[in-house]
Design goal:
- With about 375 residues, this protein is α/β, with parallel strands linked by helices.
- It folds into 2 domains: about 150 residues, Immunoglobulin-like; about 180 residues, Aminopeptidase, CATH 3.40.630.
- The protein contains 6 helices and 20 strands.
- The strands form 5 sheets. The chain has a 6-stranded mixed β-sheet with strand order 16-15-17-20-18-19, with helices on both faces. A 5-stranded mixed β-sheet has the order 6-2-3-12-11, with no helix packed on it. Strands 4-5-9-8-7 form a 5-stranded antiparallel β-sheet, with no helix packed on it.
Length: about 375
Amino acid sequence: MKLGNFSQRCQQLLHPLFYSLLFTPSVLLVAPAAHATKIESWRFNIYQSQLEFSTDEGVQPQAQLVTNPTRLVIDLPGVTLGRSTIQETYNGPIRSMRIAQFDRGTTRLVIEVAPGYTLDPNRIKFRGITPQQWIVTLPKPIPIPGMSTSVVSPAVNPAVAPIVLQPKAIAPPLVQPRAIATPPAVPPIPNGRVVVVIDPGHGGPDPGAVGIGGLQEKGIVLDIGAKVAAILQQRGVYAMLTRADDRDLDLEPRVQMAEQVNATVFVSIHANSISLDRPEVSGLETYYFQSGSELAQTIHQAILQTTGVMDRGVRTARFYVLRKTSMPSVLVEVGFVTGQDDAARLSNPSYRTQMADAIARGILQYLQRTAKR
């Protein structure tokens, strides 16, 4: 999964923080734990007001909008920076971005707005592309009534400019990003019929992950998802696609569709990515939340047995579509579009058919097994 607005994945509700501690760019770094998650890349695009960051393992960001001055504070629990503080300053309503080790197990990113400006917390968009990749899009800063504004970036002296997070200054917690559109209409389903909802990720203006040679996630997963649905239909299982073409669809309508038809299982299909500088990273990952464990293991093993793709494991994750669906649900990352091995395979229609066959076989095995209980 790759960058776009934060209404996808994300996997993704942010948990509010409550801090009364000081954070300064001169904070001392602590030696990372032997198996600590590390931040791999970050980039703040001042022209698009977008922050992108990635870690080598999954992370659940936590965020608060804090005032006096206005700043967005993003904590990455369990993540180590592995280097000294980084700070960038800008001319304009957004004054600076800095990243530092807050404590032994937390990396903190802070985006600060110029004096006299604030941000609408309801328009700050977080999006989890994968558990390892996130994008944060900021709205245009707005002047605070009655306050003079300054858009000149001053010289910053980290030693005398600590950020103090005061509980009374904390804004309401950031929640799911934007109003969700009405879910698409679905046909009536016969009572008692087994229904599988297949969810190809991304679509429309959101390409998802973009990898080697411009390979786009949205097209790969739509092709695989459509083939999975067709195979299931041929086997007598009523299969539905959340999107059957290249359209933009938010997270909640995908969930609502599954709930509306009382789906037996929900399978979301995505493709993974990492930095293009890491072409050696390839492999299959499957995620579940609570009741989806057996479904995830069954599909994962079916794919490994059929395709020979590298095994990166089955894991739990709090993706929105997994947390909000009431039926067993999984999210399958079929490979890395940035991986040399995976990108070559995923570019091949024959391999995508092979992948679809494996996913469908895993679903059928799960349905047959659970039907006997």
